[in-house]
Amino acid sequence: MGLLYIVMDGIEYQVPIEYPSLSRSISFLEGKNAGIMQSGLETLDTIGTKIGYSLHIPAQHRNQADYDAFFEAISRPNREHYVVLPYGQSEIEFFCKVEGGSDKMLDPFLQYRRWGDLTVTFTPLSPQRTP
Questions:
Q1: pTM, full prediction
Q2: Cα distance between residue 65 and residue 14, in whole Å
């Protein structure tokens, strides 16, 4: 299991992302001229490609303060963020919105409450690739 840290809005949060859980999704943004013609032929008007990400922070993270700070950042009503994530053999940086997320209380019987096992999804606000 490989690990990396989250960089969002210029802040590196010391909470590990599990490599096997980091996934990308592709969606195509179509323009107003896309659709099905009367002949049944589909016409495309692709404006660009959006590459979204879903990631998982494992239960065994060590930095509860950074975890709590990251959770506060992704759950605030202003859902727009600037993230840096792996892409190909380098990185991709883009503005995104938080689609949603969920986590679990791991151990309520310690001196402090420990949360983790977070999954969160980021969706780009604009296409990262255009024709």
A1: 0.84
A2: 9
